[in-house]
Amino acid sequence: MTATLIPTSAPRGTARGRGGEAPQGILRLGRGSGLALGLVLLWMSILVLLPLVAVLVTASTDGLAGFVDTVTSPAVAASIRLTVLTAAAATVVNTVMGTVVAWVLVRDRFWGRRLLSLVIDIPFALPTIVAGLVLIALYGNQSPLGIVLAQTRWAIFVALLFVTLPFVVRAVQPVLEELDRDVEEAGASLGASRAVVFRRLILPNIAPAMAAGAALSFARGLGEYGSVVLISGSLPRRTEVASARMLGQIENDNLAGASAVATVLLVVALAVIVLLGVVQRQTARRG
């Protein structure tokens, strides 16, 4: 007697192949998907989750009192405040200007458009320390423009603008390319001004992409080091960012203190990303 491996009648909704047999590809896909999911979870645990857990555990080495004392000390608190506020300001500016740049790249046709698109990706390609050297050459004590920003908070702001601009541009650009321009033309034909067409028809569609780019831009700004440390001078309680403060603590064998600062930045970054994600989903529903 031979056992029947494939049921003679497939369940409703199940695809059936020749001779009433279930397609083997579906079974293989299910097994492969489970294996791929397990591999992804393992890989993410090794690269992301375990390091994060290690940072949190190290930050709690001195207990809650030690953690609070570290992050509320004047120098550390000043570096965190400077980092968060400057990253937020750069994110706001680049969200606006990045959207404008993406609009020009998509809607306008001009000589050098491809070159402009290539230039936008330069902050992605440059090592951050090289970006810092570029900014020193332009805004240092021997600035050819006569604009000296070295060892000021403006230097940090300009550095973050430089390294975070591509995030918003590359997030918004493909969405603009997919928009149906016939809808915009229909709105204009009904008497709507350009501002109304943009606010009612275009902005709801690109807002989720703007939020995604802003989240990435802010997260990058919080952790930026190479381009900032060279031009800012890392003066304690003046131009020292959180990443530079963490490096100083590590060099002084204060790993718990550095981990405490990293934990605060992590919480801030996650809170902003979650908030922008909520805005993104609500905007997508309205659209």
Question: Any overview of this molecule?
Answer:
The protein is mostly helical and 287 residues long. The chain folds into 2 domains: 30 residues; 225 residues, MetI-like fold. It is built from 12 helices and no strands. Helix 8 packs across helix 9. The longest helix is centred in the first third of the chain and has 36 residues. The chain is globular and about 65 Å long.
Strand count, sense and barrel status of the largest sheet are:
none
CATH topology of the largest domain: MetI-like fold
Distance from N terminus to C terminus (CA atoms, Å) equals 61 Å
How many domains? Answer: 2
CATH superfamily of the largest domain: MetI-like
Main CATH class of the largest domain = Mainly Alpha
Number of helices: 12
User: Roughly what fraction of the amino acids lie in strands?
Assistant: under 5%
- In total, the number of strands is 0
User: How are helices and strands ordered from N to C?
Assistant: HHHHHHHHHHHH
- Portion of residues within helices: over 70%
Keywords: Membrane, Sulfate transport, Transmembrane, Transmembrane helix, Transport
Transmembrane segments: 35-59, 79-106, 118-140, 152-172, 201-219, 255-279
Subcellular location: Membrane
GO molecular function, one term: ABC-type sulfate transporter activity
